[in-house]
Amino acid sequence: MGFLLSKSLDANMKKQQEFMLHNTRLQMERQILMQNQMRERQMAMQIAWSREFVKYYGTFFTVAAVGLTAGAIRRKKPFLIAPLIPLGFVLTYQMDSAYGTLIHRMRGEAENILTSECDRLDMPHGIPTFESIEKARRAKSSLASFLEK
């Protein structure tokens, strides 16, 4: 009789463990999907910001280019065009960021770093552990209680 009850309990416990494992996996998959959607939305906002910036900066660059060129021709001083060089670099970078392949090149470089230079990504003192976090929490807690006295 006890053997049958034990066997039934073991089967139920195994089913419950499988159910919990399935739920944990499902929860983790949902969390990963949610985090990825949040990342995609943040990236979309960043690209949209770059495109808006290009509109305003492009207008500024055009006005500055026309004004500086007209001033250089009128006063016969070609060095007045010199500010267009750094302003042009900024505009080119922003255009690449907003409409070009900058993101693809950055992703490729990031993948290269992750595969061949992963030692650069190590955190000082390694990855935090539960013990190190608890030690810091206890130290802070004891310091706070000491200061209260």
TrEMBL record:
* Pfam families in the cross-refs: DUF2368
| Signal peptide annotation | none
InterPro entries, per this entry? Plg-R(KT)
Listed GO cellular component terms? plasma membrane
Q: Name one GO biological process term.
A: positive regulation of plasminogen activation
The UniProt entry's coiled-coil ranges are none
PANTHER family assigned to the protein according to its UniProt record, in alphabetical order:
PLASMINOGEN RECEPTOR (KT)
Listed name of the protein? Plasminogen receptor, C-terminal lysine transmembrane protein
Q: Which source organism does the UniProt entry give? A: Amphiprion ocellaris (Clown anemonefish)
Biological classification of the source: Eukaryota, Metazoa, Chordata, Craniata, Vertebrata
Q: Which gene encodes it?
A: PLGRKT
